[in-house]
Amino acid sequence: MQWLDQYAFKAEERIDSDPGLARRVYEKLARRLKEYGTGSVLLFGTIKEETNLILADVMQRAGIRAFVGKLSMDISSRKTYVEDSAQSSLQSARSFTKRLRSMQTELKPAQRLVEPVLTPRFVPTCSDELLAGLGEMSEVLDVRVQSHLAEARDQVDWVQRERGISDIDVFDKHKLLTPRTIQAHCTFLSRPCLSHLHTRETGIAHCPLSNSYFSSKAFPLHEALHEGVKVGLGTDIAGGYSADIMNAMRSAVMVSRIREGERRERRLEIGKGEEGEQDVSINWKEALYLATHGGANTLGLPEGAGSFQVGAPFDAQLINLYNGTTGAGLGPLDFFDPPSEEQPITEEMLEKWWCIGDTRNRSGLWVQGRQCFPTPTP
Question: Could you count the other beta carbons within 10 Å of the beta carbon of residue 369?
Fold first, then answer.
């Protein structure tokens, strides 16, 4: 809450007060996302309806598939940055949802890239009345939900102290854990809680970099996947030092390896392991899955999205590892045995790109079959 009050709330309030600034900020964001290869994004916006419509318009024009969330928050915020009441917050969320959907009806189905998302910021800033109303709205209007869940010790303790139950139970009580829901972080969830999310078909946005800054626990990724929970990879953009999903992939592997190291050390200290214990680390291929097909499944994209198969939306990046004429590696990549017809691209070369590749290796991005980066010449 200290970070939110000192930085996030102030920035959001400023954007809400200046439509011109909002458009400039969001246009730069769109350019950065495409540069980083992000063609689909789930976004927390601000509390003002008009500002979020600007965000949606910018993403649509940029060719990015975006799920835009107008924040809902009626308590425990800055006096100048909070909605007047639960009812006014619900009215604004409903209006935003309908207005954004009406913007899309003017487009052909294949061109509709932007959708609204109901976004209670997190339990501490939302009254029970507001959460109950959003749960009903999600069901009636068939609209997605996103929020933050069990992210940090102070937040978890605050909810328990104020509501008398955990925040996962608060969301569940108000029908906000559904197949349409994605919860970010979830670092303080127990194994039974993860199993409950699987039962509810609720997805998780795993943001390893921001968790390293804001949570005293690491997300139990291996356990979540073992329980069958849908997990996609996120950057949390403002919650770390990078909006590049490649850094999120690398961070996910590093965090998981630290967890595995701690598990092994505990086993050595007590002289044995727990029954049925498994390696909790992931490898680079699994991280790549979380950033692509795993994210598509979590977002509920059309069947096959995030993979190459007939009938699936063509969402793809063009990655170049080396100059086809000279054989020299591109960007940070160096190859001393250049690929050739006799020696094609190897798995080791792909892993090298995963480890140290950057924006210089990305020469194209397509979303739903249309190239959006670099911007095609008319």
Answer: 10
Residue 316: Cβ within 10 Å count? 17
Q: Report strand pairing: 362-367 vs 114-120.
A: unpaired
CB atoms near residue 272 (< 10 Å): 8
Domains and CATH numbers, the chain: 2-299 (3.20.20.140), 316-373 (no CATH)
| Model pLDDT for residues 100-149, shown as the tens digit of each residue | 999 999 899 989 999 999 999 999 999 999 999 999 999 999 999 999 99
Show the DSSP H helices in the chain as ranges.
2-3, 9-16, 19-35, 49-62, 86-105, 128-141, 153-163, 167-173, 191-200, 208-214, 221-226, 245-270, 284-291, 293-299, 347-356
Tokens of 91: 């009215």
Q: Is the pLDDT of residue 274 over 60?
A: no
Q: Is 32 exposed, middle or buried (0-12, 13-18, 19+ CB in 10 A)?
A: middle
- How many angstroms separate the CA atoms of 376 and 111, rounded? 16
Specify the pLDDT at position 276. 58
DSSP calls for 8-19:
IHHHHHHHHT-H
Three-state SS at 365: strand
Q: Write the pLDDT tens digit of every residue in 220-257.
A: 999 999 999 999 999 998 788 999 999 999 999 999 99
pTM of the model: 0.94
Question: Residue 97, SS3?
Answer: helix
- In sequence order, the β-bridge partners of residue 117 are 69, 144
Helix axes 49-62, 19-35, angle to 10 degrees: 40
How far apart (Å, rounded) are the C-alpha atoms in residues 143 and 99? 13
